[in-house]
Every structure is written in structure tokens, then in C-alpha cells.
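Input record (Table S2, row 307):
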Amino acid sequence: MTQPVADASLPNSPFLRIAVLGAGTMGHGIAHAAALALASHGGSANAASVCLFDIDAVALARAIANVSANLDAGVARGKLSASARDGALAILRTSTVLADAVHGADLVIEAVPERVELKRQLLAAAAAAAPTTCVFATNTSSIPLRKLVSALPDATRFCGLHFFNPVHIQKLVEVVQAADTGVATLDAAVAFARFMGKEPIVVRDVAGFASSRLGLILGLEAIRMLEEGVASAADIDKAMSLGYRHPMGPLALTDLIGLDVRLAIAETLALEIDPVRFAPPALLRELVAAGKLGRKSGEGFYRYDEG
Ligand code: NAD
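Output record (nicotinamide-adenine-dinucleotide complex):
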């Protein structure tokens, strides 16, 4: 494969035209961080672009509103300049048409719900419309890449780019190296994570990678403790935040991630690693069935006010 070529004005970026598929919790954050990195390194709307794609136009409108609000908050806190914010917004666009979103893309990052068939179908459709030189990455939290790769025409151009929520703040990116990921793809993915100001770690293609596998155990055990009445949600969280200096307790973190997302990850890891260790607790299933998905729906283990 040929290494993606960087524009002379952006010497550190292996990718200049990026499509992000799925504009939810993660997709809008990835688009924000990519557009800001490109704009901050001097990328203009002519030289660089980030297109956020979703089948739901309402999700796209919400995503742009969230990105704008988060960029504004960055300016208000003195973390970034008004011109960097404006540059990022100029680079960012949205589309509900997949072929339009991936047209001319050199990197496609998929961030749709944690379902193997959905991801496979979308990756295949995106590859059919994208340039043959395009690199594809998945933001999956738990699905082994070997289950997705055959949807793509070139396995050497596929890797994992697992970002963390909220993406514009969290430093970690797991770069997942599948069996056939090419060296040039891996190097470009690591370089792009660094270009975005992130700290990449390279992880082998095992379900749950390095982060979700450990984080989920704590989250599931906290839910089981709540079911058993060991303590209140707030006190279980306090035990971890004060006792172990975690920045956030496991139940509050589950609300932030999304209870539906955590359930999907638990189901994948129960299937792939151990059906007992990763068995989703009944309470998690009940809350998801009731539409209590955490912050994004206004209620999970805690209630959240509008805004
Ligand atoms: P989400 O439910 O917030 O957003 C998913 C988005 O995908 C929605 O806007 C939905 O409209 C869109 N979508 C659904 N089908 C689509 C299709 N066919 N084409 C285009 N868009 C489609 O989900 P999320 O939390 O952003 O999770 C996305 C991925 O990122 C999952 O694989 C998840 O495991 C992973 N992830 C999540 C977190 C987290 O904290 N939430 C962290 C790391 C990784």
C-alpha cells in the first residue's frame, strides 16, 4: 500500500480529508477533535475537511450544536483561540448521504452503534464509495476487528481508533492492530492520534482491547452491588472516587458512556471472553429497556436536568 500523503501546509497529518460515520456521543467528539487539530495546524477549508455522516438529520444538528458549544466553552476558558474555533467550524460539515460524506476521503472513522452487522454493512458501503487509497478505522469499544475486516476490500488499510468520551478532552486513543493491518496504516493511525494531541497506545485485536475489558468489569460489578443493596449509587461511586481516586465513579461513568453502549459491550465480551464475568446484570437490561440510557436520555443511575 502507499502511505497517505500529507499536505505541505500540514506536515504532521497523514490524513486531511476525514469522514466520521455516526454523529452520536463519540462521532461528534471525534469530528470536533479532528477538525480542531486540522484547523490549529493551519488547515483551511480548502486543504482539509471533516464530514460527519449520520442517517438521522436531527442527530447531525444536535452534533453540530454540541461541537459549537464545546468549542465556545474552550474559548471561554482560554484553552483555545476564537480563530481556532472558527477554523474548526469552517472545516466541519455534515451529510446524510454516505457517498457524499466519503467522497475524496483519506480516512473514514466509523462510530455507529456496537452491532457487528450494522458496522459491516456501513463499512462495505463506505468502501464502495470512497477512494481505493482510503484508510478505514473503527471506534468500536469491544468488537474484535477480525469480525469486521472481511467487509472491506483491503485488510491492510483497516485498524481500530478507539477514542474516549468526551473525545475533545480525553487523551487516550487505543490504536488496534488487527492481524492484517499494514505497517503504513498503523504508523499513520498512531501519527494521526498524536497530531490530534492524543496519547496513542497500540493494542492487539482482542475483544475489549486494553480499556473496555478492565473498565467494564468495574462497571458491571458496581451495578450488581446496587442490585444487592450494598450501598446507594452515589455511595458506590464515592467509594471509587474518594477511596481509589478515580475521577468519576463507575455508575456515573456508565451514565456518561451510555447504558445501551455498555450493555452492547458486555454482550460482546460475554460472547468473546467469558459468559460469567461479563454477564450483563438484570438491572442494566431493565434500565435500557425503559429508555434510561444515562446522560443522553436525561436519566440512568442518576437524573440529569436539561443542559
Ligand atoms: P450513539 O448511540 O451515541 O451514536 C450512534 C450514532 O450512530 C447515532 O447518531 C445514530 O443515529 C447513528 N447511526 C445509527 N445507524 C447508522 C447508520 N447506518 N449510518 C450512520 N449513522 C448511524 O453511540 P456512541 O456512544 O457514539 O457509540 C458509537 C461507537 O463508539 C460504538 O461502537 C461504541 O461502542 C463506541 N464507543 C463508545 C464510547 C462511549 O463512551 N459512548 C466510548 C468509546 C467507544
